[in-house]
Amino acid sequence: MKNPYDVLGIPSTATIDEVKDAYRNMAKKYHPDNYTNSPLQEQASRKMQEINEAYDNIILMRGSAGQQSSNQSYRSTDSTGYNAPGSTDFYDIRIKINQGRIDDAEMLLDGIPSSKRNAEWHFLKGSIQNRRGWFEEARNSFSNATRMDPSNVEYANAFNNLNRSGNGAFRANRRSYNDKKGCSTCDICTGLLCADCCCECLGGDLISCC
Amino acid sequence: MFGYVKIFKPELKIKDYEIYKGIYCSLCKALGKNYGLTSRLSLNYDFTFLALVRMAVNDEFSGFTPSHCSFNIAKKCLACPKEQEDINYSSAVSAIVVFHKIKDNITDNSFFKKLPFIFIYPFSFFSYKKATKKYFHLAQVLDEQMKNQRDLEKNKCTSIDKAADPTAKALSEIISHGFENDEKKIMTYFGYCLGRLLYILDAVDDLEDDLKSKGYNTFLLQNEEIPEIRKQAEMIINTTMDEIAKAYELLEINRCKDILDNIIYYGFDKTIDKVLKKEGCKNEKSI
């Protein structure tokens, strides 16, 4: 089994707060919702499991019996990613999509006559296109689905996810996650000021003008 | 289509920069050894990235040794030993891809513009044949996707997703070749989204030129207002880049993670902003 500290990307000397922060950041990144319509959903849920186990291990090792182990909301409730049930026409198609058999699913979907192509049809079409990497067509399909059934949360979430990533929200977030927690200019100045104070207390003078 | 995948030097540590240049230099040596002097002309940072990402994910790695430049003996560099398969693989991919590019340039350009490509064609063809012998299946996939790309352009395809698909599929095969199981799945999707991004960036970059020369450009077929196209393309590029990052984060990176992080989180950011004409870097010098 991998070292739990390596999984969370922290040193073994990290404080409990640092462990929790690292877990929170990793969980946000690999949350199952981020990979709902991705062909890498299975790999992502395995990664999430690894992160949850690592966090649980560290908490257990540090003997914090009263601590709640990994937040329930970060656990993937169903590894097959089964979505809310639709009509029986589309049940087979949903199963195939979740199994990654998107070409088969599309064949079944395209076999449905135009008169029966409701909101769910467009949503499933979008899911297939999304998994294939055709994001623009997926966005159009999800848009059709939400237009035809505005109250449906599943369709709205899929459409909103694509719009959010389209507006660059994830780009900005990812950059800040990966900025190394090194010294900022504030840290350097504060450090120097403190060092100067300590030095003066002991009779010396680090920075003559302060 | 080349030149979009590179580091953002200001945010890279010097030790990582030396390694990055070391891979570049190793690729230069491999090209010269495997495919002759003229093949070195195809050396670029895109194929350096290909070798880098594969070396990072692979279990085995033979390490770097101090060496010197083949053209300037006084200049020191790091180099991978000749047996490092990812460097040889990258040189083979370079031979195949560049051959197709030269063929396209000869078909598409006017007489004077295609002259230098006609001159280099026989050398490129020789390299292509040699690379194909070693990586037959890969060459077949690339040949097929290049043909699909030409057909789509001939039929004036208006869907950006469909138009980017052959390039995306080609890159997904290139990046994932030789991997298995989960790694293969992730590298395939990573390569697909990356190929898609490169196609779209190229299309946006060429908007002005294609408008003037009436060359094929999926975006121009729907709309001739370039600022509007850039706005629409920005959303598509952002979504694709997000998927690239999500796939990258699922990979088990065994080495050179800092260099890859730099390219994925900083390098692409800069490239995308430049292509969308957001921030200029005037008189940009080579890395």
For the biggest sheet of chain A, the summary is: none
Roughly how many Å apart are the termini of chain B? 18 Å
Give me the number of helical elements of chain A: 10
How many helices of chain B? The count is: 11
Radius of gyration of chain A: 24 Å
Which chains share the greatest interface? Answer: A-B, 29 and 31 residues
How does this structure look, described?
- Chain A is built from ten helices and no strands.
- Chain A has helices spanning 4-8, 16-30, 41-61, 88-98, 102-110, 119-132, 135-148, 153-166, 169-178, 185-201.
- Chain A is elongated and about 90 Å long.
- The N and C termini of chain A lie far apart (53 Å).
- The relative contact order of chain A is 0.08.
- The model of chain A is unreliable at 76-86 (pLDDT under 50).
- With 287 residues, chain B is an all-alpha fold.
- Chain B contains eleven helices and two strands.
- In chain B, strands 1-2 form a two-stranded antiparallel sheet.
- Chain B is globular, with a radius of gyration of 19 Å.
- At the A-B interface, helix 3, helix 7, helix 8 and helix 9 of A face helix 6, helix 7, helix 10 and helix 11 of B.
Short description:
Chain A is mainly alpha-helical. Chain A is built from 10 helices and no strands.
